[in-house]
């Protein structure tokens, strides 16, 4: 099998390592089947479409729609690398699954309006498939229910999609929770790479980053512990199964 590639854009080593472990676990891929690259500090490896099965881009503390002057050097580097890579992904039809930061980057690249209109605080939300979502091969392979629980926490979101993009899932606050361009490039607003324990662990690291009020943190965690969000991670395994070659 050609390996997949996992892209990280998190400057914090401990969070990046935890994210790596989650993707390995939920995708079912082995270490040698999932190349790991951190675009906040390194360029994308010298790989071509024929060398890999697909690319997974996880979440990030970075925000695409923020003004350029507010972004750190690491954020600017990661963003530039991701957009260069997306040029190739679209041109060469490389399978792609982006989560949270992935919806902002793929959306921006494809002409979506990404802004803070539909930001959502940390929490578990109801996600509903659209008619197109119910017919989508990745969603079908993951066996997602028509309505399922997703884990979110984001400042920006899709306000409008371009006409050529297909909305696959929606939510009450952020109307675009998942979309597809072409037949093999996907992005989700919710996190398929997280479960309840891992989103709580990550939230502790980012408690002062504006995703929620720090004073409410323990109450939010208590509410999260009462929920189950075991369907979104199936997307990672489905992505690996559907596009492995």
From TrEMBL:
<dbReference type="InterPro" id="IPR017926">
    <property type="entry name" value="GATASE"/>
</dbReference>
<dbReference type="Pfam" id="PF00117">
    <property type="entry name" value="GATase"/>
</dbReference>
<keyword id="KW-0436">Ligase</keyword>
<protein>
    <submittedName>
        <fullName>GMP synthase (Glutamine-hydrolyzing)</fullName>
        <ecNumber>6.3.5.2</ecNumber>
    </submittedName>
</protein>
<dbReference type="GO" id="GO:0003922">
    <property type="term" value="F:GMP synthase (glutamine-hydrolyzing) activity"/>
</dbReference>
<feature type="domain" description="Glutamine amidotransferase">
    <location>
        <begin position="49"/>
        <end position="194"/>
    </location>
</feature>
<dbReference type="InterPro" id="IPR029062">
    <property type="entry name" value="Class_I_gatase-like"/>
</dbReference>
<dbReference type="InterPro" id="IPR044992">
    <property type="entry name" value="ChyE-like"/>
</dbReference>
């Amino acid at each position: 099998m050609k390996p997949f590639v996992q892209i990280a854009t998190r400057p914090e080593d401990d969070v990046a390592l935890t994210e790596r472990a989650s993707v390995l676990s939920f995708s079912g891929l082995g270490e040698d089947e999932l190349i790991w690259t951190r675009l906040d500090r390194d360029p994308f490896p010298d790989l071509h479409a024929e060398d890999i099965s697909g690319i997974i881009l996880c979440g990030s503390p970075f925000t695409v729609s923020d003004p350029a002057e507010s972004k750190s050097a690491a954020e600017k580097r990661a963003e530039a690398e991701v957009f260069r890579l997306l040029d190739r992904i679209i041109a060469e039809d490389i399978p792609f699954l982006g989560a949270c930061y992935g919806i902002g980057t793929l959306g921006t690249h494809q002409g979506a309006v990404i802004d803070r209109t539909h930001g959502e605080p940390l929490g578990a939300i109801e996600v509903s498939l659209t008619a197109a979502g119910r017919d989508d091969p990745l969603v079908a392979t993951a066996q997602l229910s028509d309505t399922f629980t997703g884990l979110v926490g984001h400042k920006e979101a899709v306000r409008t999609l371009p006409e050529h993009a297909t909305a696959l899932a929606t939510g009450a606050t952020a109307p675009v929770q998942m979309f597809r361009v072409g037949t093999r490039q996907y992005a989700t607003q919710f996190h398929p790479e997280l479960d309840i324990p891992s989103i709580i662990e990550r939230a502790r690291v980012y408690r002062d980053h504006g995703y929620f009020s720090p004073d409410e943190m323990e109450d939010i965690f208590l509410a999260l512990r009462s929920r189950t969000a075991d369907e979104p991670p199936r997307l990672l395994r489905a992505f690996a199964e559907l596009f492995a070659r």
